[in-house]
Amino acid sequence: MSTVASVECTKCGAANRPQAKFCGACGASLVVEVACPGCGAPNPGSRSFCDECGSKLGVGSVPAQPTSAPAPPTLSDGRYILGRLLGEGAGKRVYLATDTRLQREVAAALFKADGTDETAMRRARREAEAMAKLGEHPNVVNVYDFGEEAGQLYLISQYMAGGDLQDLLSDAADHRIAIEQVVRIGADIASGLAHAHSQGVVHRDVKPQNVWLAPDGTAKLGDFGLAVAEGSSRLTREGTIIGTVAYMSPEQGLGRGSDARSDIYSLGALLYELLCGITPFVGESPAAVVSQHVSTAPIAPSGHRTGVPAALDQLLLKMLAKPPEARPQEAAEVRDTLDLIAATVAGADSAPRDVAALDRITDSTFVGRERETQQLRAAIDDAISRRGRSVLVSGESGIGKTRLVSEVAAYAALRGAQVLWGRCYAGAGAPAYWPWVQVIRDYAHERDAKTMASELGSGAFEIAQIVSEVREQLPEIPESPPLDAEQARFRLFDSISRFLISASDRQPLAIFLEDLHQADRPSLMLLQFIARELARSRVFLLGTYRDDELADDHYLNVVLTALSKERGYAHIRLRGLSDHNVKAMLEAVLQQPLTRRRELKLAETVCRESEGNPYFAEEIARHLIDSQVLVWRKDRWVVDFREGQELGIPRGVREVVSHRFEALPDETLKLLSTAAVIGREFDLQILTRISGLEANAVLAQLQPALDETIVRPCVGEPGGYVFAHGATRDALYDDLPALHRCQLHIAVGEALEQVYEERIESHLSQIAYHFAKAAPRGDIAKAADYAWWAAERAVTTYAYEDAVSLFDTSLRLFDSLSEVEPRRRCDLLLALGDASWRAGEAERARATFGEAAETARDLALNDHYARAALGYGGSATRISITDQADERLAAMLTEALDMLPVRDTALRVRVLARLALELRCKQAMDEAGRLSAQAVEMAERVGDPKIMLRAMHSRQWSTMGPDTLDEAVASGKEMVRLARIVGDRDMEFEGHHLRLIAHAQLGDFHTVDEEIAVCDRMASELHQPQYLWQAAVFRTMRALMQGRCEEAGRLALEALSIGQRARPEAARAVFGAQSFLTKLADGTLGQLTGLGREAAARYGQAWPSAFVWLLTETGQLNEARARFADLTADSFRALQQTSDWLTSVCALSIASIAIGDREAASGLYELLTPYADLCTLFLGGAGCLGSNHAFLGFAAAAAGHDRDAVRHFDLALARNAEVGSTYVTPRVCYEYARTLLKQSDGRGREKAMGLIDQGLSYARRFGMRVEVERLTQLRQEQREQKSTLGWTALDDVAQSVEQNRPDLRAVAAPDGTVTIMFSDIENSTVLTEQLGDRQWLKVLHRHNAVIRRHLSEHRGFEVKSQGDGFMVAFASASSAIRCAIAIQRDFAALRDRLGSQVPCVRIGLHAGEVIREQEDFFGHNVILAARIAAKANGNEILVSAVMRELVAGSQEFQFGEAREEQLKGLQDHHRIHEVYWR
């Protein structure tokens, strides 16, 4: 006989019986468990989810602790004597106790919480308070006492000798009890709940373990540990799932608020289990169970058990309804119904099996999507870990998107996320951003006004514009300042994005958007925006769409392309189920394996006909049962058809729908046809009004459609219903006669007017849609007015694309009227044109404004004409990229000015200001200046600061140039002051921008950097793409000026990314200009030839000039000379003195060197001379190349004016160093050196070599490859003239090391310092000539041997040797000096012995930090050491001041007095010391 091994206690080692939970010897826990972080229940350590509440175990879960202290023998000063342990739950132990005062048995519950666990203490007190509040009731476990003993809370309650309901179920055959007993127990529990609810207490955890039985069988409700008073604040986290998974309501499963109706749902689930032996929903995981609670209809109890009364069947299904409002609203109603059923209980088995099977069709096992489910669960886990994710799921109709999303939503809720839903509907007048409105409304429903205000933050006003409930909840929201169209929409998008991300900080959000193929364009644009912002948030965003219904021009395609480039995005395409999975689904429906030949044949047929589409497979199964192909015989489903028999399987969606309709009563079908006119989603209140029926009658007629799942209630939308399949609604709508359809549309429109009279603005799109649909036979003028009104509403909510469509509808309707008021039509055209601009439809806008202008002219509507002319021009650009004027616009504005009365009005100021800007583009600078001055003067008289700001803005941009910089500085300051007074942040930024570019041209870069910092701050505050882009452009400009080319390239790309969302064309143009400079530096400028040629043809005069420069840099001199000649012909007639005139002159000046046209170069020099002390900018601050002296130097050098060139180059180097502009320094050094090398004196040549070294130092530091090559080549050319230039072996070695740049980190001291020693033979060239080659080689060999011997002795590292020149590296400065002294002493001894044939050696030393200085180490320290050595005489050792300081503390060496020396090629004087070695 086998025996079961005992369980050994890990604490004391004692043996215990296998079923024991605690050690009999020491009381220690024997079960390895972890406590659930959600409800505290203990679970086996191997589990992933809590079997009490479904929360995920793992991170944050802690081992379940045994009672913190042993139970005291008595409680309450000895009144209660504890006896045996009755049981143990997650938070308490319950003992049988004796009340010595009343001599009765009681239950004593000792809570495991102690004073250190505040949450558990609160929960314990809450249970006691809740049960005490209920007082005595026959169906509630009565509480007698509550207190604290030795730090432990205890609760004394009625002892229930009959045990709990779970025990009764466990002992029952088939895990179910008699129907009569189910009804009686249900009535008892409902009575207890009714009492609790009347006291304002919601239980929230109704389950068999919490229902106790008295000896007489009376059921009593107990364990109110999760109870909460209705209306009170939750002690649990919002979104936490409260209750036990098998019995929880859908709203609890989604983490939403629960009320009395949640208890009714749980009671329904409990009674279902008592009756059927299983809970309504089972699954492989808690997520799967919650998913079914949320989205799957339960099988009727009669499908599991024969003899269930129809009334009980219907009651339980009603209690298990998804929307709370569809359930019985009070527990008393449930109790009364059960009492009636108890009186009529009968045991007949009347429920046909096919009904149950049909029910299971909507509850088929979720098969074939395991991979997708795991992928989506992982994405949710990522989001909860603050790695926000966005996923789009696509597939054909019926492929299972909704079911998959439901499963995932349940998992998200289990993981603690708040689940939010948004559904898209085509047509039916859904307002703009409809899915997002639902999401925000869903979220706001769970929050009070104070919390919402806090979470909405500064974006509350924008969000309230589209979600009326927010406005109602927060009526005092301050209005945001006005912005232009795109900025306003960005502010809305950014407000919603920041709100959702901020809300996710409190609790993760899981947002589900269904049917995106039906979404309006603004909703999709918002989706694209939000998905891009999610990277570091706790937001999971999932959208579904039908890819087979997505047209090529649908905006969702644009979104899909954009999202594919975002991190954290994934796309899942659902395909048909495999044959194996379809068969498994059928087996789940029929609840039997399909193994017989006919069954397998049937399964094969369903697989083939459905092509793996779950919806079609379900409908085929439904059809086979309805048509008696599947029949119930002898406790089994049997396939009943003959070989070759036609099964009549539906061939498409419409045929499926027709089959479904056949089962409906005529009145239901008629009602559904009426509902179809309302839309795929319809409201019971509207349907009641237009059907002419009472609400009860509507519900009754709707019930068959609900039973057939043709329609279903909208979760979270009381009174809302939706057609389960879009094809159903479409079929019903299409089958309606045209006249009847129009009549119904009118009825719907009128019903919407009446129902939403108080808040009609939120429903304007719906009303407009229905009246427009009825227009041929309805009130066309009314329809046109509503469409206009709805369009204006769309503009205020930044849904510009919707506004265009609605204005179009209004215009079409107006034009169909027999009599149209021309002025109103003109107003409508102006509104349509404005909306078209805002929607980005520029050509459409111009055409519309053009038509409006013609209408206004014909009607002599002067103001309308002026508005049309302004509208035709659109908004004036801030950064000019083209000087091509719009001739028609200029003519229209001029005509508008003539038409307007000559008096001071804001409209006239606007026309003057806009015309001035257009005249600037026409090169009519004088006229532009005159009109802009008039605009400013008139604005002063009008007295409107906002109009004044527009006028000042126009004045500065229309007259911008190097001669008006002082005015620009003053105007910029005044604009900032005025803008702050009126709260116009746009113009405040413009004022700072104006000051920035003016001060930059004046060379005041200290103020420029201050203004950039202000613009950065304002851009961050405003968070508008326009300003964020400009701030990024300014930062790039400064990086380029300072030669930080690699960083500038990265910043330019960032600016482009931002600018694409603000001003795409301008952003691309600015990026192209900045890329010119970065690619010029890295040698890839040729890549821009094609784009440069296109820009030169398209944009203003600076672009053709810059293209000439590009051609010279890339060696395309023939084309460069031809273009240069065109631009400089006729005394530079092609160059107009506009804001970018100086940019053109500077570009042509540097190009003139390669062109070789001295006469044109002289002309450029004369043009630029008056502006020598300025700096030239391009594209309104996109770039600056520093002082104009550099370009004057280029022009002078090209013209052959060397003296002027030298003067300007010197000034350029000094001025650029002062303002922090080094980009052009290597080129200046190069051209300056070339100019000096033309001269014959040695001093000029020596300075040229120094300039080459200086230029190379900068070029190498900043990675300017082209300049490095240019300067290196120039220096190489000079090596052929060594003797003339005094070139030595030191120069050869230094040049070679600079080019090769060996890694010296291995010889660095621990602090990163490396000491460099250079040495060579004094006057080696003279010695070579004196000794001859053979004798010189002997001397050289002896010299090198001496050097290398001492290097070895002093641990020197030979970096490079060339001829007699050496460069050596040392880790120690002292070792280097010792080595140098040893070398000199050795050569001195050789000279004493051998005489003059021994050469004199000169040595120089310097130290630097190779680790920290990296690239600059070679450009500075190596050159400096070589120059120090070159300054030494024979037999002399010289060191830098740095070296002197490094070894001063040792007192080992003697040094001479410091002397200031000008070292070759280096600008500043350097202090050096002689080392005494003799």
TrEMBL record:
Organism encoding this protein: Mycobacterium gastri
InterPro entries: A/G_cyclase, AAA_16, DZR, Kinase-like_dom_sf, Nucleotide_cyclase, P-loop_NTPase, Prot_kinase_dom, TPR-like_helical_dom_sf
Source superkingdom: Bacteria
Location, primary (coarse class): membrane
Boundaries of every Guanylate cyclase domain copy: 1315-1429
Top enzyme category: transferase
Protein name (Swiss-Prot/TrEMBL): non-specific serine/threonine protein kinase
One GO cellular component, as annotated: cytoplasm
Membrane topology: Single-pass membrane protein
Keywords, alphabetical: ATP-binding, Cell membrane, Kinase, Membrane, Nucleotide-binding, Serine/threonine-protein kinase, Transferase, Transmembrane, Transmembrane helix
Protein kinase domain segment(s): 80-341
EC code: 2.7.11.1
Entry GO MF terms: adenylate cyclase activity; ATP binding; protein serine/threonine kinase activity
GO biological process: cyclic nucleotide biosynthetic process; intracellular signal transduction; regulation of primary metabolic process
Localization terms from the record: Cell membrane
